[in-house]
Design goal:
single chain, about 350 residues, Alpha-Beta Plaits, 2 domains, 8 helices
Length: about 350
């Protein structure tokens, strides 16, 4: 499915869009590309009147198609916002069938500025860590003197952190900001890093961005998809691993934690999810102040991604001791889904056979 990006101006009612551009990057041979067919399909998917489409540019090679919409109307802002808010997984899949791998919505000037910013994004390896015995490890809340806000920070045991370089003056920029985690699917990972986090439509605790102070909770496959590493893509990095998960490490100011709520995976009192954090306060709802998207490149964003947490195992992570709570009676219903990376019967078979799972760090 395609990476979808949107300009910040789209979500600011005080801004006037200078253009309402839809830009598509299409993995197709230009000589075999039929523009009329593509436009007909796009208009059906996005409910756009063909008469409101004005083709601005078509680039050959991997096709780059740039069009302006609502050329006969004055509501450019509303049209772009409506398209973005109505974007569903089904729509993404339909775009994928058209071989669209990137789509931008909004002001083209914003896209150019954003691409410039993304080019400068880089890792900060000095702060990469392996969290395990004989590596970086501690018990209880960390008291090393580093400012991580007013919430306790516990060792994310079993994970490897790849640090992102997000600010020159990190201690000043994030003074008082707390650490939390956000699990996601692989197909959304790059989109989140480039475009930011979209406000959740899930109303369990209300609209906002859902995070957790517990990586144990955030790494449940309902949130952090488990991907089986096929032998055809094994390399030096994955040579010992069979399964992979990733979770985003984020920073949020405590003033923007709107609510500390109960878990929403139906665990209830059947199991303890994380011995350090109560089931009743394990979900944090982040206040986005009415915005539909929190762009990590926006200096006024209420949440920033500061690292990518990765866990690679030689067997399914559902076999790890830390995952026992997944099998609480009602919670186990979430394991019969594609994002678990294995058929439920096969997973329970591994448990019956007492198979073990080891985390791979090197």
């Amino acid at each position: 499915m395609p990476l979808i990006s949107v300009s910040n101006e789209t979500f600011n009612d005080n801004n006037e869009l200078t253009s309402s551009i839809l830009k598509f990057a299409i993995d197709n041979d230009y000589n075999n590309f039929v523009l009329k067919n593509f436009l007909n399909t796009i208009s059906n998917i996005m409910k756009i009147d063909l008469d409101d489409i004005d083709i601005k540019k078509i680039q050959k090679g991997s096709i780059i198609l740039e069009m302006e919409i609502s050329k006969k109307t004055s509501s450019k802002f509303q049209k772009i916002k409506l398209i973005f808010k109505s974007m569903t997984d089904v729509m993404r899949e339909e775009l994928g069938k058209l071989k669209v791998f990137f789509m931008f919505m909004g002001d083209i000037t914003s896209l150019k500025e954003r691409q410039k910013g993304y080019y400068e994004i880089k890792l900060h390896p000095e702060w990469n860590h392996i969290y395990a015995h004989n590596h970086t490890y501690w018990v209880g809340a960390n008291n090393d003197g580093i400012d991580r806000g007013n919430q306790p920070y516990y060792c994310p045991v079993g994970w490897k952190r790849y640090s992102l370089y997000v600010a020159n003056n990190f201690p000043e920029k994030f003074k008082g900001w707390c650490i939390c985690y956000h699990g996601t699917k692989f197909k959304y990972g790059l989109s989140i890093l480039l475009s930011g986090l979209k406000t959740a439509k899930d109303k369990a605790h209300g609209p906002g961005i859902y995070t957790s102070p517990s990586i144990i909770y955030a790494s449940h496959p309902r949130y952090a998809e488990i991907k089986f590493v096929e032998s055809s893509v094994e390399n030096d990095y994955f040579r010992k691993g069979q399964y992979m998960q990733f979770v985003l490490e984020c920073r949020v100011h405590p003033n923007n934690i709107k609510k500390k709520g109960r878990e929403t995976l139906c665990v209830n009192n059947q199991a303890i999810i994380d011995p350090n954090i109560s089931n009743d306060t394990i979900e944090w709802l982040i206040d986005t102040h009415g915005k539909d998207l929190m762009d990590f490149n926006d200096p006024n964003s209420v949440i920033f991604c500061t690292g990518i947490m990765v866990r690679i195992t030689d067997n399914h992570p559902g076999l790890l001791p830390v995952s026992k709570w997944w099998y609480a009676y009602d919670t186990s219903n979430f394991l019969n889904q594609e994002y678990v990376g294995i058929h439920y019967e096969d997973l329970t078979g591994k448990i019956i056979n007492k198979e073990k799972c080891n985390i791979i760090f090197e």
